[in-house]
């Protein structure tokens, strides 16, 4: 197998392949989401059928995805939740802490900064920025709101890998440009702006309504 080709197949020795296909990576992320929640709820084991019920991926596919990366499951017992979380995080190379800078201390930004939604998956909001001087200095969760002019210095000092945009659409592109210039390679965009970024930068746009359309498609077909 070429190391530059993405793979959908299991590696014979159960080792992590060099690169996953988008499909495998997307499914592993969905398993991880369910497993993280299950772990929080105190669940120790989970079967491929349960994973299937929560992710809507069929259980044969799940067993195939997971068997490709080593023997995690025991027949009749299911998978050990804790060990599967760390194995998948290793495969997705997301083990450890990843620092996030959040832009916009408005309704959405404050809700994100005060919740565990990112922390549960190893992302830490290390800074929150706003352009409105009346918000700068305000306490939000464990952070004090900084002025957006500090972006570059904070990205460097705090080793920020993800920029999260919770700003009005008109402000998003300029912030994306500043993040790219500061070396940030992942942008999580809550605004509806279609961001222009260089090819090495990944933009993920969050749109609950679009996710719902996807669910509706499967409901209707
Ligand atoms: N995808 C989703 O799930 C979802 C949900 C809610 C809101 N949104 C979107 O998120 C964005 C924020 O929504 P909101 O309700 O929090 O708005 P809001 O008006 O309450 O907050 C926006 C904040 O951004 C700040 N801001 C403006 N320009 C800035 C800049 N250049 N740098 C830093 N901060 C700047 C404002 O001062 C304000 O504090 C909007 O684009 C909205 O459409 C998306």
UniProtKB/TrEMBL annotation:
The record, for Pfam families, names: CoA_binding (PF02629), Put_DNA-bind_N (PF06971)
Alphabetically, the GO molecular function entries are:
DNA binding; DNA-binding transcription factor activity
Residue ranges of domain CoA-binding in the record: 96-194
Q: What is its main location?
A: cytoplasm
Quaternary structure and interacting proteins, as annotated: Homodimer.
UniProt family annotation: Belongs to the transcriptional regulatory Rex family.
**Name of this chain's protein:** Redox-sensing transcriptional repressor Rex
Species: Paraconexibacter algicola
């Amino acid at each position: 197998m070429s190391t530059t080709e993405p793979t959908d197949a299991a590696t014979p020795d159960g080792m992590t392949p060099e690169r996953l296909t988008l499909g495998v990576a997307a499914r592993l992320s969905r398993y991880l989401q369910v497993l993280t929640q299950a772990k929080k709820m105190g669940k120790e084991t989970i079967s491929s059928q349960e994973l299937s019920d929560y992710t809507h991926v069929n259980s044969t596919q799940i067993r195939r995805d997971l068997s490709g990366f080593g023997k995690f499951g025991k027949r009749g017992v299911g998978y050990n939740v804790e060990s599967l979380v760390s194995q998948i995080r290793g495969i997705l190379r997301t083990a450890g802490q990843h620092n996030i800078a959040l832009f916009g201390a408005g309704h959405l930004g404050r809700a994100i900064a005060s919740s565990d939604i990112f922390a549960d998956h190893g992302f830490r909001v290390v800074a929150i920025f706003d352009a409105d001087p009346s918000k700068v200095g305000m306490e939000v969760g464990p952070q004090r709101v900084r002025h957006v002019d500090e972006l570059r210095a904070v990205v460097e000092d705090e080793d920020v890998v993800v920029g999260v945009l919770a700003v009005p659409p008109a402000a998003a592109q300029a912030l994306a440009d500043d993040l790219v210039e500061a070396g940030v390679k992942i942008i999580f965009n809550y605004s509806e702006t279609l961001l222009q970024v260089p090819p090495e930068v990944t933009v993920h746009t969050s749109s609950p309504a679009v996710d719902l359309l996807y669910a509706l498609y499967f409901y209707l077909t």
